[in-house]
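Researcher: Checking consistency across runs. Here is DUF305 domain-containing protein again:
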Amino acid sequence: MKRTTTLAALTLTSTLALAACGNDTGGDNGDSTTGTATDTATSAPATTDEGDTATETTTTGTGGEISAEHNDADVMFAQMMIPHHQQAVEMSEILLAKDNIPTEVADFAQGVIDAQGPEIDRMNAMLEAWGEQPVTGSSGMGGMDHGEMGGMSGMMTEEDLAALENAQGTEAARLYLEQMTAHHEGAVDMARDEVNDGQNPQAVALAEQVIEDQEAEIAEMEQMLQNL
């Protein structure tokens, strides 16, 4: 009987030892698995919400992200303001090609080119972000000529541009300032429409900038006219 009891005790001890080993191994595996899962969760990429946000904006080299959110007023603003800006650049280039232009007027004309060129690029980037065709060409709006664009607020006609081409010296500077004042006033009107009716935040912000900049330039041109 004593031998039987001893064997039974040994068997029970071995069983308990094996169970303990099994529990230690399982514990190690459990800790390892938990650690791996935690690490994976920590290093996981951005959530679906972030991915969705990325698809709603386009990053460009012409002023940063452009939201896909837009309405017809935003599209119209860009499509109309681009040729409007293009004509302002053209008028300034006509003036700068002349001799004997007062320095302050020539500097102003160069400033118009420097400011409105990048804005044209920005608006074309907006159109592309919205799935619309960019407006290209010196006349803009798909080959529309100056006479056809004369109906746009502040746009010069062919006759207006011919008069600027033919003027010289101080008279050319005076005519440029008078024409550009009317041109700027038209741009401000168009920009106000965008602020009131537009939806895209970048387009509305650009329109607000146009209003601020061009109203200040109108006051500057009025002063230059008095100085001529």
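Researcher: Does this match what you'd expect to see?
Model: One thing to look at in this run: The helical segments are 2-42, 48-55, 72-96, 103-129, 146-149, 158-166, 169-197, 201-227.
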